[in-house]
Design a protein that fits this description.
Blueprint lengths: L1 H29 L9 H22 L3 H12 L3 H4 L4 H25 L1 H11 L14 H18 L3 H18 L7 H7 L6 H5 L6 H4 L9 H5 L29 H6 L15
Helix pairs in contact: 1-8, 2-7, 3-7, 3-8, 5-6, 5-7, 5-8
């Protein structure tokens, strides 16, 4: 069973990724939320190539990844759920919730610590907001995030199936809540009670710092409400708000090489944001 899960994990994740990416891309064409000043041809090559680099980096540094860590923890008897007997369904549900909470706090940490923000700001430096923005993370941030995830998985003794479920959900919801898609107001109001919606997460990509430092959730919206970081709407409205950060606002900053170098260079207009 363990070998089977490890063997098919990349196939499951890859298949779901491609299907959701295509569905969201079509949805953005059919029912877009905001007009885009910079088109896909300018932005998508860099954003999609980052996914390839991130995948290669994780597989190189962490060959077993999170699911493999869960299997090793199970074999060695490491972690809470490998020491305490609980129903399988409860261990799965609890593991998904704890992992999502860990990602929420990790996200806040990457905004609060200046050198971590230097890595994370590449995600926010996209000049538009669509499905590929949800894939745009610096490889060093991805590696740090995976290290944190492995620590949580091992400490928790999370079942491998729960880890796989969480990884798939996180990938799917990240593409969904970064989508430039239009949802009826009533549906969005109810949907954001159980999952982060595009309108909810778009606030987080506002150029206004108070809005950037809100709505940190990627999957479940409850943590923002519980810990006081929830913001309902952007002050300028979804059509009037400016996407991105004050630094790196030139179109050439969307190139892959410029994106990879962003953490290591001072911005052309150094803001007072987190560089103090």
């Amino acid at each position: 069973m363990s070998d089977l899960l490890l063997t098919h994990e990349p196939v499951v994740r890859g298949t779901v990724f491609i299907i959701v990416l295509l569905v969201m891309a079509v949805w953005e064409i059919v029912a877009s939320r905001r007009p885009q000043r910079i088109g896909r041809a300018r932005r998508w090559p860099g954003n999609l190539l980052i996914v390839v680099l991130d995948t290669l980096a994780v597989r190189l540094v962490f060959p077993l990844a999170a699911v493999g860590a869960a299997l090793v923890a199970s074999e060695q008897g490491w972690g809470l759920f490998n020491l305490v007997s609980v129903p399988g369904w409860l261990a799965i549900v609890a593991s998904v919730l704890v992992l999502d909470l860990a990602i929420y706090f990790q996200h806040r940490l990457f905004h609060a610590v200046p050198w971590l923000w230097r890595l994370h700001r590449m995600h926010h430096a996209d000049l538009e907001f669509d499905v590929t923005t949800g894939l745009r993370f610096h490889p060093l941030e991805i590696l740090l995030s995976m290290g944190i995830k492995l620590a949580v998985v091992t400490s928790l003794g999370a079942p491998a199936v729960a880890v796989l479920l969480f990884e798939v959900l996180l990938n799917v919801t990240s593409m969904f809540n970064h989508g430039n898609v239009r949802l009826p107001v009533r549906i969005d109001r109810w949907l954001r009670l159980i999952v982060v919606t595009p309108d909810m997460h778009r606030v987080h990509h506002s150029i206004i710092r108070q809005e950037t430092d809100s709505n940190f959730g990627f999957n479940l919206p409850w943590w923002d409400r519980l810990f006081g970081t929830y913001r309902d709407q952007p002050s300028a409205g979804h059509l009037g708000m400016t996407i991105g950060i004050e630094d790196f606002r030139e179109a050439h900053d969307l190139r892959l090489d410029r994106m990879l170098l962003q953490p290591f260079v001072n911005p052309p207009r150094k803001s007072k944001r987190r560089e103090l």
